[in-house]
Specification:
2 domains, about 40% strand, Rossmann fold, Jelly Rolls, about 210 residues, ten-stranded mixed β-sheet, 3 helices, four-stranded antiparallel β-sheet, alpha/beta
Amino acid sequence: MKAFLCTGGAVFPDGISERPGADDLILAADAGFRTAQHLGLRPAIVLGDFDSLGSVPELPEGTELIRVPAEKNLTDTQLGVQIALDRGAQAVTIVGGLGGRLDHTLSNLAILEDLWEKKIPAVITDGKNRARFLRSNSLLLLREPQFRYFSLISADPTVRGVTLEGCKYPLRNAKLTRRLHFAVSNEISGNCALISVRRGGVWIIESSD
């Protein structure tokens, strides 16, 4: 089962190619309830402290409500991911959460790294940006019309053996660092690009402009 978690922040539906399947678990975290409505989705679980939404929304019959205090150890998005995993999710898509408060954006990107360590495939997207995490492995990045650019941002102080094939600016066994050397604003030249990292972790971020 996959989990489809709607969070707060602006979303651009035309750029979101991910859609939940019939058997997937749909959740909405706080203001993510509005995101779900915007996408025409009916969440099975609505959760959060509802400080962003302002109040607990009126929910359709049969929707599970999980209300938590505002003073807690997890953000609403982190809580939503934890609930999804507890319910048996084997992959997670987070929609929203890439705009607004920078601390929440960085926290959400860190969720991708945590899920990678748990061996849970994950992606976060708002339709204009999409992010994944990769550590000491390879990934085939398909070209999609809504995303013109892709970038690699180091999660570790040094990332070694970075190779990029099938793109405008290829790399061969390169070293990236968190402070100075990034791989930003690359473009896929064909149908896909092959991204390989020998040692270290990177965020792979696709952008529309």
